[in-house]
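2024-03-11 09:14:02 DEBUG pipeline.ingest accepted 1 chain
2024-03-11 09:14:02 DEBUG pipeline.ingest length=467
2024-03-11 09:14:03 DEBUG pipeline.predict start
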Amino acid sequence: MPLLIVCVLATPGVSEESPDKPAAGSPKMTERDQRMEWWREARFGMFVHWGLYSGLAGTWEGKAVSDRGGMEWIQNNVGADTDTYAEAAIPLFKPKQGFAEEWARLAKQAGCKYVVFTTKHHDGFALHDSHVSDYDAGSVLERDLVREIVDACRAQGLRVGFYHSVIDWHHDQYGYANSQQLPHPLKGKPYPNGERDHSKYVEFLHKQVDELMNNYGPVDIVWWDYSAIDYQGDEAWDAFNLMAKVRKRQPGVIMNNRLFRIPEAGWKSMGTAGFSTQLDPKYGDFITPEQHVPDEGMPGVDWETCMTMNTTWGYSEHDHAWKSTETLVRNLVDIVSKGGNYLLNIGPTGDGTIPPESVERMQAVGDWMATNGQAIYGATISGVASPAWGRVTQSRDGAALYLCVFDAPEDGRLELAGVPTKFTRAMLLGSGEAIELDRDGEEIRLTLPVGAQGTLVPVVQLTFAGE
C-alpha cells in the first residue's frame, strides 16, 4: 500500500519541488546518478574527527585553549611548529584495542548508513600505514588505524568515506605562503627550512591518496578539505588530475566539492556559510554546507550538511555545549525535507573512546529512527508547503508523504494544505494507531493521538486506497 507520511517541525517554511532524479534502475539514470543512488537513499551518516589533536583534548601546556569549537585546529590556534606539536600530542594519542568496533556499532545503532572519518587532518598526521611518510600511525604506532576502522564499518554493513585534508601543517614543502586565506600555525612567518617547492608536496599528497585508494577495497566517499578563494583547484592541488586518479581506481566513489572555492563548485565566499546553490559535477558530486541548513535547500543539487554535536569537531574536555537529542532529530528531518543529507560528528578521545554525551544522543536518535526511519531513508522534498508545526517529506517515488511533528498545537489539531486528494488514510508510525482524517479539497485536518503528543517528533503516515 503506498504511504504518505508527514513530519512536523517548529519552524515554518516552504519546501521546493523535488529535484527530477530518475528512479533506481531507470534506463534514464546517468553514470553519476547510479553512483549517487545509495547516498540519496541513506540520508544519515556519522562523521568522525580523530587524530593527534584528540589526545590534547583542547588543552595546551596545562591550560584550556577554549571552551568552544575548533580543537582539531589546536596546533594552529596555539601557533605551534610541527615538532613542538608532535612532541606534545603523540604521547597522548593511544588508540585502545576495539575502538573501531565501538564506533561502527554506535553508527549502526543510530541508524546511520555511512561513516566518514579523518584519514589525515590539517596537522598532517595520517592514520594509515603510509610508505611515503614517517608521520603516520604505521610508523609511530605500528598500527594501520584506517584498516581497523574500514574493517569494523564493513562488518556492520556501513558504507565508508575518507575525509582527507589537502592542507598539511607538517610537510616541509607545503607552500603555506601561497595563500593568505588558508590557515597555518606559522602563517606570516618565513619558511623555517628555506624556500619550498610546493609541487613536491602535491606529489606527496597524490601518493598518499593513491595508497588510500589502492589498499582498502571499495571506498564510497572521498571528503576533501579544503581550499581558499586565493588558492584552490589545479593551482593548489592539481585537483582535476587528483580526482581522475581517484575515479580510475574507485569508479563508484563520490566526492565533495572542497578541492575548489569558486561559484561553479558551490562556493561564493570563504567561511562555513559561504556556499552557493550551484554545482558543476566536474568539481564534485555534492555541496557541503557546514553547521548550516540552507533555508530553502538546494533544488536540483545534491548536498550534505555536516554538523557537530557540541561546538567542536575534534574532542575537547572543555566543550559542554551539547545539542539536545530533540535538536538533532529536528535537524535531520529539516534537512531531509529540503532534499539533503545529515553528516553528524562525533569526536572520540585520544584512545578512541566516544564521549558518553555523544553515545547517549546517537542511541536516542537511533531509537527514533527505528520507529520513524521511513520518513528519512529515501525521502526528500515533498512539494507540500511546510506547516508551522513541522516539515513534510516524501518518498522519492512519490508514493508516500511523511508528516513529522515538532510542536503540535495544545489540542493536537493539525492542519495541512496542498495535500493531493488521493491520500485518504492516516496512521501514527510506531503504534499503527489509525487517525481520523478530514478533508476539504486539498486541505486535511487531523488530531494527533494523545499518547503521541509531547513525544520526540511523532510521525503521521498518510496512505491511500487502491493500486
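2024-03-11 09:14:41 DEBUG pipeline.report The longest helix spans residues 198-214.
2024-03-11 09:14:41 DEBUG pipeline.predict end
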